[in-house]
């Protein structure tokens, strides 16, 4: 077991290095890293100093190593809009995005899993068809449009909820519901198909033959086995959640990393953009690593198969 | 090569085209003779497809959108950039203050919303379709090469895919578009980034499978060059999943393009795009709701149509994939 965890963790290192490599490439997309990392009005002396610090006259592999060592020391460049280290700027806004994403995740799980389970249990019923219809619609609606529609209906017309901003619980409701929709649709469909597969298995038939009630069969036996592969998908979908957060944050003026990235793009404050990208990607890799390890833990077949 | 000819009285050799047994015929070399291709399978699929109501609904909607996109100059009552400041900010025809000359209302510059939506169909569909084609060509090529040759090609390709997937796509797309020029070519390339991995992985898996089968070994024993094996035997097997993937990827890319345009990083004005219209609609959400609602409906209808059609195609091509 420990060997599996260790192997998985070690496998994460190339992925993290890959993230830094992509960031490095992006740095050079404009041609000159000093254009990307320094404000347009920077003086020639500061540019020269920058070039020296980043070793821009060295061969590329050396430059990458210099860049990597700076990253590891926490030097992501300096935001010229905020006049702070870029890393700090991003970290300040991170809690807001985490709050929104977590709320959206919880809502999606709370809606999707029961819906998927019941759909599978009552296959082809009215409920099933209705849910699958909503799921199809949910995957066809752009997140940002849904956000605007919800604002229109609940804030502007009905005056039930606030339009934008962050602070009160009421302000969290609309953005998190908006963000959760796509994930909820996907999860509902996966849960349903997973359950359908599991429900046709022999051990479920055995459980029923033993006389167990349908509810027990569904929850204690079928559900557990359905959920395990869904956790893997969930790990991957969190990337979509973080990406979608950018759109949702824009619509609701939610002060998170997403709005920060867009503002910084407008201001050409690229150190912040790159810092945000690296941080989010790193977080994503780590989350998937944890999901991998969790999966090994939850599915005994993997444990025994690799002799761990 | 007469020793390969079935002797008179022997049972005829079965013909494999792309790994599928399509006919039993008497002929000479199993792989070199021009194979008669009975059209049975294609007709079957088409018939199955027409029997799926949701698939047909999707197809019908798609046709409507396509017609709108192609026929925009004829169908749209106004140009997409025709400003008419006297008629600015008119609500849809059925509200007070609306007129039927502008059924869906006008924007702050007096431009007709319906016309702009019709013209934007060209942009959104065109760009998304182009991106699907680029992603498909690239992804299928990589998948075939990875699956067939394995070795370092496979290792490098799969590692690159993994690294790319470590990034939430939209964030990566935003960063790249911000650093590059916002041209249509760059946009198509960035959108293609979203999809190529799906193609590559699926095709690679298929190639790995088919590669192991006997007829491929037979072909190689006969001296068929790699290129022939890949193109004539691996590729046809892979077409079914590629078609299914393509319809779903088209839906996703339409949403992705709208998202980038919404953020101002996609299609640039004055070219109309649904996403950009939604962005403007957001500014005027409280005063002119129709600016944002209708382009969104257009997106939903198109994406829904593509998804329905994709579902139908998948079910028609291989009912076993139905979930």
Explain this structure to me?
The complex is a heterodimer of chains A (308) and B (323). A two-stranded antiparallel ribbon of chain A has the order 1-2. Chain A has helices at 2-27, 33-37, 44-53, 60-72, 86-121, 126-138, 143-157, 169-199, 202-209, 214-252, 257-266, 270-298, 300-305; strands at 78-79, 84-85. The longest helix of chain A has 39 residues, at 214-252. The mean pLDDT of chain A is 84. Chain A has 308 residues and is mostly helical. Helix content of chain B is 64%, strand content 3%. A two-stranded antiparallel ribbon of chain B has the order 1-2. In chain B, α4 (113-149) runs parallel beside α7 and α4 packs antiparallel against α9 (226-262). The chains are: A mainly alpha (308), B mainly alpha (323). At the A-B interface, α1, α7, α8, α10 and α11 of A face α5, α6, α9, α10 and α11 of B.
User: What is the number of E strands of chain A?
Assistant: 2
Instruction: Quote the average pLDDT of chain B.
Output: 81
* CATH homologous superfamily title of the domain at 98-267 and 290-299 in chain A: MetI-like
Report Rg of chain B.
25 Å
* Rg of chain A, Cα atoms, Å: 24 Å
Low-confidence stretches of chain B: 1-40
CATH architecture verdict of the largest domain in chain B = Orthogonal Bundle
Structural class of chain B: mainly alpha
CATH architecture type of the domain at 98-267 and 290-299 in chain A: Orthogonal Bundle
CATH topology of the domain at 98-267 and 290-299 in chain A: MetI-like fold
Greatest interface and its residue counts?
Answer: A-B, 51 and 42 residues
What value does the average pLDDT of chain A take? Answer: 84
Name the overall outline of chain B.
Answer: elongated
Please state the structural category of chain A. Answer: mainly alpha
Question: Within the largest sheet of chain A, what's the order of strands?
Answer: 1-2
- Name the assembly state: heterodimer
- Describe the sheet with the most strands of chain B: 2 strands, antiparallel
CATH-defined topology of the largest domain in chain B: MetI-like fold
The best one-word shape of chain A is flat
Tell me the strand percentage band of chain A. Answer: under 5%
CATH superfamily membership of the largest domain in chain B, which one? MetI-like
